[in-house]
Amino acid sequence: MKLTIPLPKEYSFEKTIERVKEFEKATEHEKDKKLWRAIRLSSRAIVVGVCKNEAGELEIESHDKLSRFEQMELKEIMTHRWSLEVDLTPFYKRMAQNPILYSTIPDRMGFHIVRDPDLYECLIRTIISQQLNLSFAGTLIHRFIEQFGEKISHLDMWFSSFPTVERVADLNYEDLTTLQLTQRKAEYIIDLSRAIVEGKLDLSSLQQETDEEIMKRLISFRGIGRWTVECLLMFGYGRSNVLPAADIGLRNALQLLYGSDTRPSETEVREFAKDWSPYASYVTFYLWDYLTQQKKISKVTKKGYNER
DNA sequence: GGCCAGGCTAGCA
DNA sequence: TGCTAGCATGGC
Q1: Which of A115, A154, A232, A261 would bridge A47 by S-S if both were Cys, CB 3.0 to 4.6 A apart?
Q2: Which residues form a coiled coil (predicted)?
């Protein structure tokens, strides 16, 4: 069955899915001009495909019939995932005042942040990604989902939903270290899942808190540092003014963009970012994307040079 | 072969 | 309170 949601103005679906196709190869599969993945509703996991239809709306197709309640829930999850409530116009106006930053915008007009469908998934993905290059992190996430997720068949393909917190809470550390997660990350992931199951940690109850309060509450758990909360704020809670000032990718991007000899420190990043508020999440996201694109270009250039 | 990844913790001064 | 070695492995 199909649902549709209108896209906001300044929304480029094409540019927005590019990044998903690149970084979420493990969970997203393209078929019949739609991007498919498993999504967990409160009642069950389903397989969902999305595309932009001829009317310019987001079209969502589910592998199975959905109840009225499930339809509402799915629309809410998709609105959040694809940042459909975000109007980028004021962000672009602000960026126009900074020519260097603005140089990254024209190639990314309408490019929106793609968030995780749920907070637990976001937390675990972020912990797995700590201190790893994104490509290896993607491999580990893929193994984790394949191993412990629920399998659903659709369009002659198998999809795995993100593992439930109950399932993960029941695992042994060894179940994760065999996937090549480190002993410590295995402990973080399983201990946090147990804390959630036992009611010691309730991610959704923090929804109405301020960024600072969420930071204070979550950072007290083992395995969750500043960076992890910042990612959770951006990709889980959907906060628009997050600055992961110590993030290596953001610092590399600023170094490259400003043509600096050295990588800016966390303090210097805060100096760069003093006029980014209240759009720091978007500036960060655009700079991350700028960095990946530039890396790709330099790789192609090097390859061409070597082949000559 | 060595250094670096969209970090975090424990242990030490 | 602030600093840093160690974690672990793929990619370049």
Answers
A1: A154
A2: none
Residues of A belonging to the active site: 247
Domain span(s) for CATH 3.30.310.20 in chain A: 1-86
Q: Identify whether the C-beta of residue A60 lies closer than 8 Å to the C-beta of residue A46.
A: no
CA atoms within 13 A on the CB side of A215: 12
A306 touches strand C (CB under 7 A): no
Q: Which nucleotide is nearest to A133 (CA to C1')?
A: B5
What residue is closest to C6 (Cα–C1')?
A184
Contact A162, A43 (CB under 8 A): no
- Name A residues 264-303 whose Cβ lies under 7 Å from strand C: 299
Q: Is the model's pTM score more than 0.85? A: yes
pLDDT in tens, A58-114: 999 999 999 999 999 999 999 999 999 999 999 999 999 999 999 999 999 999 999
Token readout for A44 is 């069950």
Q: Decide: helix, strand or coil at residue A196.
A: helix
Band the pLDDT of A296: cuts 50, 70, 90.
confident
CATH superfamily, domain at A1-86: DNA-3-methyladenine glycosylase AlkA, N-terminal domain (3.30.310.20)
Please, which positions of strand B sit below 7 A from a protein CB?
4-10
Inter-residue contact A208 to A198 (CB < 8 Å)? no
**Which tokens belong to A67?**
């109840």
Spatial distance from the CA of A229 to the C1' of B1 (Å): 35
pLDDT at A109: 97
Q: State the nucleotide closest to A184 in CA–C1' terms.
A: C7
A290, A104 contact by CB (below 8 A): yes
CA of A184 to C1' of B3 (A): 23
Average pLDDT, whole number, for chain A? 94
Residue A308 reports pLDDT greater than 50: no
